[in-house]
Amino acid sequence: MDVAVIHAPLADRFGNARLRGNLAIDQEISLAARRVIVTAEEVVDELDAPIELTGLSTTAVVQAPRGAWPTSCYPSYHLDGEEILRYVDACAAGNFAEYIIADQPKDI
Questions:
Q1: Within this chain, do residues 108 and 96 fall inside the same structural domain, yes or no?
Q2: pLDDT band at 87 (very low <50, low <70, confident <90, very high)
Q3: Closest Cα partner for 16 from 66, 59, 53, 50?
Q4: With bands split at pLDDT 50, 70 and 90, how would you rate the model's confidence at 108?
Q5: Cα-flanking dihedrals φ and ψ of residue 8, to 5°?
Q6: Are residues 101 and 54 in the same domain?
Q7: How many Cα atoms within 13 Å fall on the side-chain side of residue 94?
């Protein structure tokens, strides 16, 4: 695997992250990838324990509030089922580009 992007509720500038019990396979993916990008709801200078994802394999850290949306990032926000269905419908109709463009600010 070339790149893994893992979203966390909290990370530090060194790439250490707290996943708050939502482990799934994030730890395994971070070990298998050549590059690991951690996106986080909030990035702080340094984390104390508990750290569920170490920065040893992290290539980059990016603060990305609501970066997991429309999926969830417990406890910050829940899965947005309506938006996921809108996305699936757009993709099934061959309208992925229109779906992405429709949600962009008009002044870009």
A1: yes
A2: very high
A3: 53
A4: very low
A5: -130, 155
A6: no
A7: 0
